[in-house]
Amino acid sequence: MPKSKRSKVVHMTKVTKKTREHKERLFDNIRDAIAQHQYCFVFAVDNMRNTYLKDLRQELSDSRFFFGKTKLMARALGRTAADSAADGTWALAAHVRGTVGLLVTSRAPGAVLAQLGAVRRADFARAGAVAPRGFALPPGALHATGGEVPAEHDVPVGHALEPELRRLGLPVRMARGRVELDAPADGAGHVVCRAGDVLDARQTRLLKLFDVCLAEFRVRVVAYWTAATGEVTLVDPDAAPEQQDEDADEELEDGKSE
């Protein structure tokens, strides 16, 4: 029977499950990198963005970055002095908790801390993020930044956005060829978010449409290990967000690859 030529739906989100081989490779790669470099940093990332992280990897191309389940990375460092990857790395494993990664490098700690501390990139917030400040749209003709800059230095919102703004719940209308926002009863404007709000998809879309960046990509060092002395130096032990490690009792095969 001839093979069907009908088009088939292929789900691009489908990924291959990591095998034990992938996870054991991460374990071995961490240990090999530690043997070849002088320092190992535990760091946390605020508002993870792959694009900015890729740039950081290129800047530190002589170093190694590792991300995975915390239990796997901690096990690679060693849980006790007897099974440490190197002298003293077991003490660093205690700081591998929450959402963190490992940076293994031979660059001096001062240079690494300065370089990572300088990494700050403003970006659009995503659903689930907490708004650091409020944002409201003033009534009347809408401008591209929603009132973030004076109207004389801004440009009007394009008429093509009017249907989407209406779909997102804004009481907008076309008037004299411009998109205008009707004033609410109090006349104060339309509040998109308030400081401390947990943003939903509608709010983040409105913030992006008006070019309002409420997220910041940052890298913060928790602690680092020095090969020469075997000591662990604390930098910011509260940098990693506290979260329950649901995989604390899982075995090695539940780790992620590098």
Describe the model.
This protein is an alpha+beta fold. It has 2 domains: 20-123 and 216-236, Alpha-Beta Plaits (2-Layer Sandwich), CATH 3.30.70.1730; 135-212, Ribosomal protein L10, N-terminal fragment, domain II (Molybdopterin biosynthesis moea protein, domain 2, Alpha-Beta Complex), CATH 3.90.105.20. The chain has 7 helices and 11 strands. The protein has helices at residues 20-36, 50-59, 70-77, 89-93, 109-117, 162-167, 201-209, and strands at residues 39-46, 64-66, 100-105, 120-123, 135-137, 140-141, 172-175, 178-181, 190-193, 215-226, 232-234. The strands form 3 sheets. Strands 1, 2, 3, 4, 10 and 11 form a 6-stranded antiparallel sheet that branches. Strands 6-8-7 form a 3-stranded antiparallel sheet. A two-stranded antiparallel ribbon has the order 5-9. α1 (20-36) crosses α3. It is elongated, with a radius of gyration of 24 Å. The relative contact order is 0.22.
